[in-house]
Amino acid sequence: MTRAKNGTRERPTLEAVARRAGVSRATVSRVVNGSTTVAEPIQEAVRRAVRELGYVPNLAARSLVTQRTDSAALILPETPTRVFSDDPFFHGIIRGVSMELDAADKQLVLLIAGSTAGHDRVERYTMSRHVDGVMFASMHGADPLPAALIRMGIPVVCSGRPLGRATVEVPYVDVDQIGGVVSAVQHLLDSGRKRIATIAGPQDMVAGIDRLTGYRQALRDSDRRSIVAIGDFTRESGTVAMRQLLDDDPKLDAVFAASDLMAHGALRVLREAGRRVPDDVAVIGFDDIEMARYTEPPLTTVRQPIQQIGREMARQLMRLVAGEEIEAVTMLPTELIIRESA
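Structure tokens predicted for LacI family transcriptional regulator:
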């Protein structure tokens, strides 16, 4: 590496690598940019020259040639407080996406858009093609951005079915939300529970909508009536909703909560009200986060593979970026995990 006039070391150039390897600059460029059309002995000579000189590609120039940034965005339309809370859903999604991208030597760009201004900023960033593709998780309402990006030719994969009427098909990864909830409520019915309530998730999110649909579907063929309170997947909302349910129907004997955190809040209220779980009131959650094993009593819940959702989103996105076709819907299974609370 040569010294510049100001005493700093100059970065080795493509020309220097070409001279060291005894090949043309164009050949070095093809090898550095991942071309497979160069003979293996020549590729090895170039790689050896790169190591010896300490050459580092200029990523900005490389992206102009390849039209790739080697990065992908994960957009979370939530506030930073929510994303970095004790809700393991966000940790699991980010971990799964990051693991898959890391294995492919790609960079994760995390974009949080919990306000109108934040959403506008994220929209400008992604539409400017700073990333090769975009993933969405924890979406609220009928967000037009995924379809708009697809119309621009930017690959997109969502976690959960996008709400609203899209003018283009938006690929997504989801779990069997309805089937998982039906199995949970059926378990309560089979155990003889008569007054089965639910703490539903937010009704501007597909997970909240589908889990409430599953609850109502399971009760449809029984003589039980629906008893519903709405939460937002947080522990605090589960506490408020459980108090509301006890006020509305003091004789309820079972509760399905659409998240484990809401179930945790419900358990606390039931304990304070002197209701024994599961003797007086059975409780089932959804997620199977680590905490579910350590509640008092341990929580029966519907397991969804949160980390696998993230990995599958990243895997499908990289296939789209590579120009491959993918299935529009990737559905992962859920599983009822029986513990002591029901």
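The chain has a mean pLDDT of 90.
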